[in-house]
Amino acid sequence: MSYQNECQQILDVFETELRGFVCKQLETLIGAGWWKTRVPGPIKQSCRQRRIQDQNRPFPPLPTGEDVDYIHIGELKDIIVRADNYKEVFSEFFGSNSNGITTKLEELIATRDAVRHVRPGIGAREHERLIVTCRDVFDAMILDIDTKPNLKIFSMGTGESQPGDENDPIMKTIR
């Protein structure tokens, strides 16, 4: 498997975990109406439009979820760093100043765009940086990656294997 493919898998898991974390924290502290009261209007509209586009596809029909399932990572960043959300909910995890999480998520967004659009040159360096950055965010979210099977892909290897090698720790968790 290539670094490109592994980065895709890492991003899939990261985005799913981050979305779940944001939803859980906001619902726990704000209540069931958090989507209406704590998500900026343009984000709600974009998510709804993406969901409606999927629902209206004549061929092939696509499974759809709720509007929240259509949040992009950049929109998650905007929800997290929104002043009231950050102060009341996310500062507990990411510190009193939102600059740190903003920087981490913007780095992930840049890498995500390169990976998702299959730009050439995604290699070991980008792969390792992606894992380290995701782990930094997970550490702040107080996620124990060693106890969640779907997070095993974030375990750092020894540096002695390449993606797809039988000794590659990431490949061992996927097989």
- Rg is 17 Å
Number of β-strand runs: 0
Please indicate the count of domains.
1
Oligomer: single chain
Question: What distance separates the N and C termini?
Answer: 11 Å
Relative strand content = under 5%
Characterization of the model:
This protein has one domain (3-174). The chain has helices spanning 3-30, 34-38, 41-55, 73-81, 83-94, 99-116, 124-140, 169-174. Helix 1 runs parallel beside helix 7 (124-140), helix 4 runs antiparallel to helix 6 and helix 6 (99-116) runs antiparallel to helix 7 (124-140). The longest helix has 28 residues, at 3-30. Helices cover 63% and strands 0% of the residues. The chain contains 8 helices and no strands. The protein is globular.
SSE layout and pairings?
Layout: H1 3-30, H2 34-38, H3 41-55, H4 73-81, H5 83-94, H6 99-116, H7 124-140, H8 169-174
Keywords:
single chain; 175 residues; mainly alpha; 63% helix; disordered C terminus
Question: Would you summarize the structure shown here?
Answer:
The chain has 175 residues and is mainly α. The chain has 8 helices and no strands.
